[in-house]
Amino acid sequence: MKKVGLIMGSDSDLPVVRKAAAVLDELQIPYEAHVYSAHRTPAEARAFSLSARDEGFGVIIAFAGMAAHLAGAIAANTTLPVIGVPCKSAVLEGVDALLSTVMMPSGIPVATVAIDGGKNAALLAAEILAVADRDLAEMLDARRSSEAEAVLEKDAGIMDRL
Ligand code: RP5
Questions:
Q1: How far does the centroid of ligand 1 lie from the alpha carbon of residue 6, in Å?
Q2: 86-105 burial, b for 16+ CB within 10 Å, e for fewer?
Q3: Please, what sign has the CA dihedral across residues 50, 55, 56, 59?
């Protein structure tokens, strides 16, 4: 199976990256994590992006906060699918990163998830890989079913909780 790249702009993004890693672990999807910053280590971010397809990656998830250019900078140098996760910062609560990540100019797409949305980013990466992997698709279907069952159980008990 292709690997997922988990690229964070700073190790301060780790709590959000861990949410993605937990989902990938659960689905037995291989991944590799790195700290590469669009601003502080642009050469390393570029080199990773240029070689990612040859290195066996199938999807890249980029986590960054503040003036978050990491997902776009990675997408500029690869045609692998890139998912951007805007990370919450102290001053603007992640809206800064959300807008920086989602407002990509035409021609260089970044699939942006919610602020701190590490879990959905990993699920989206899994869905991309599952296009060509029936076993993974079945795992995702089973996961959906068990989440639906959990909601139905809550529905059954909601009157007792009022
Ligand atoms: C971004 O700046 C990082 O992705 C991080 O979210 C934010 C702050 O980085 P640190 O100052 O905590 O290293 O590049």
A1: 15
A2: bbbbeeeebebbbebbbebe
A3: negative
Whole-number Å distance, alpha carbon 12 to ligand 1 midpoint, is: 6
Report the predicted TM-score, pTM, of the whole model to 2 decimal places. Answer: 0.96
Alpha-carbon span 63 to 35, nearest angstrom: 9
How many angstroms separate the Cα of 47 from the Cα of each of 31, 86, 124? 18, 22, 24
Task: For residue 43, give every residue at least 6 positions away whose Cβ sits within 8 Å of its Cβ, in sequence order, or none.
Answer: none
Angle at 68 between CA 74 and CA 81, to 5 degrees: 30
All domains of the chain, ordered by start, with CATH? 3-134 (3.40.50.1970)
pLDDT in tens, 10-34: 999 999 999 999 999 999 999 999 9
> Rounded CA gap, 90 and 137, in Å?
38
Ligand 1: does its nearest atom lie under 6 Å from the Cβ of 41?
Answer: no
